[in-house]
Amino acid sequence: MGTGVYAMSLARVLPYTKQLLESVIEPGDCVVDMTAGNGHDTQFLAERVGPEGRVLAFDVQAQAIEESTRRLDEAGMLARVDLYHESHIHVGARLSDEQRPVRAGVFNLGYLPGSDKSITTTGEETLEALDALLPVLAPGGLVVLVVYHGHLEGKRERDAVLDYVTALDQQDYAVLQYRFLNQQNHPPFIIAIEKKVRG
Ligand code: SAM
User: Which terms does the UniProt entry file under GO BP (predicted)?
Assistant: First the structure.
C-alpha cells in the first residue's frame, strides 16, 4: 500500500543457490566448496551433511582459509571439514576413494568482497576444476556455479563457462541457467549442472 516495499516471489540468486544444494544433499554426504572465501557456503554445506558427512573446501588465499577456519570452529563444525589452501583444480587428487562420488559442489566465482580484487577465479582454472569434478559427481548430484561478470576476468570466465556447459552431452547432464533479465549492472547468475541417473 504505497510503502515501496515489495515481496519477491522469485528467489534471489544466493538463496536459490542454497535451495538447489539443499534439494540434493543428505546427512552423511560428501560435498565440495570450490571457493571457500569467508566460509559462509562451507558452513552451510557442513550444516547440511551433518556430523557423519564431509566437506572439502578450497581457496588460494591464506586469509580466506583462516577466516573459514575461524567461522567453522566457532560453529563447532571444523571436524567435518577439510580446508585446502590451494586451487580447486586439485579436487580430484584430494578426494579419497571413500569420499567418492560427491553429492554436490558449489563455485562462488570472482573475488572475495573487501579483499584483493586481483585474486579472482579464472575461466581456465574453473574449467579445469569442472573437468576434475564432474566425473566424480554422483548420479543425481548437482554442481552450482554463481557467476559474477562485472569485472574483466569475470566476462572471460562467464563466456568460457557458458561455452563449456552448453556443450555438455544432454544424455549425461541437465544444465540450468537462472538469471534475472531486467536487472542493471551485470547481476550475478546461476548455472546448475545435474548429473543424470542412467536408466
Ligand atoms: N563462497 C565464499 C563465501 O561464502 O564467503 C565467497 C567466495 S569469493 C566470491 C571467491 C573466492 O575464490 C575468493 O576467496 C578467492 O580467493 C577464491 N579463488 C580464486 N581462485 C581460486 C582457485 N583457483 N581455487 C580456489 N579458490 C579460488
Answer: methylation
